[in-house]
Design a protein that fits this description.
alpha+beta, Alpha-Beta Plaits, 2 domains, ten-stranded mixed sheet, 10 strands
């Protein structure tokens, strides 16, 4: 019989790991502009499809992956996590990283490989996800960061945006802040643990960063939050509007969806107990 969970966590025996049917987890970064989203689609270039094709070549078998987040077309990632069941004969972590990076193409980079316990899922075992949205605000168009930001020419009142953001902290029903069709018949309660706005310089260009941390997110939830806050910042709505929109539980009560290009899946966190000792 497989060893108990706590014993498998600390074993380094190849035989024990094979018996336990361990899982491989990849940390993946990608330029979302090159893909029609993360999730595999027939006859479309997607991150998951590209990774699975590369893994099939490297592992010499069909590989089915699970992603921590199903990012939309044009959304980027720095810390996406992708898991798949390991099998005896798969390359070790270093070889897997080299080979997948050689095959996946220039728009994807595997930055880390870890082994996880049997049954681990990059999606369902995640306890926290962080997204960051970048805005360049002002009359001068961005140059070096133009592919990863939303350029907003009209001046934004950042303090008003911060005030509006405070109503969204905590656990709420975010039905107003997601794609309406995706919410039908589904639970739409989520918890936002951090929602902050700060200025950051990147390659000499000033960006307004909206940092959102939560347990999980609905379809287009972060982009709708950003679009709503931008309406407040531009003076088209007052800071109390976010609380009203939240209570309405209707998509048309909140603001527009911000462009995909400004959003990056920054990191995903898991309990330490899921990782196997190397």
């Amino acid at each position: 019989m497989p060893a108990p969970h706590d014993q498998r966590l600390h074993t380094t025996s190849g035989e024990a790991l094979a018996e336990a049917r361990t899982v491989t987890a990849l940390t993946v970064a990608y330029d979302g502009a090159a893909f029609l989203g993360f999730a595999r689609q027939p006859s479309a270039s997607t991150v998951q499809g590209r990774l699975e094709s590369a893994l099939a070549t490297v592992c010499r078998r069909d590989v089915v992956t699970v992603g921590a987040g199903r990012t939309d077309a044009g959304v980027h990632a720095l810390g996406q996590v992708v898991s798949f069941a390991a099998e005896r004969g798969d390359p070790d972590g270093a070889a897997l990283l080299r080979s997948v990076n050689a095959l996946a193409g220039p728009d994807i980079a595997v930055t880390g490989v870890r082994r996880a316990v049997q049954g681990f899922s990059a999606r369902f075992d995640a306890v926290e996800r962080e997204y960051r949205y970048r805005i360049v605000n002002g009359p001068v168009p961005p140059l070096f960061v133009r592919d990863v930001v939303w350029w907003v020419k009209r001046p934004l009142d950042v303090e008003a945006m911060r005030s509006a953001a405070s109503a969204l902290l905590g656990e709420h029903d975010f039905r107003s802040f997601c794609v309406a069709e995706s919410a039908q018949g589904k639970r739409t309660v989520r918890e936002i643990r951090t929602l902050e706005l700060f200025e950051q310089e990147e390659l000499g260009e000033s960006c307004l960063v909206v940092r959102v941390v939560g347990n999980a997110f609905l379809h287009a939830m972060v982009r709708t939050i950003v679009g709503t806050l931008a309406e407040v910042g531009a003076g088209r709505r007052d800071a109390t509007w976010t609380a009203v929109a939240l209570a309405a539980q209707r998509r048309d009560a909140a603001g527009p969806t911000a462009p995909a290009c400004g959003l990056t899946l920054w990191r995903v966190e898991y309990p330490e107990s899921v990782w196997l000792a190397e």
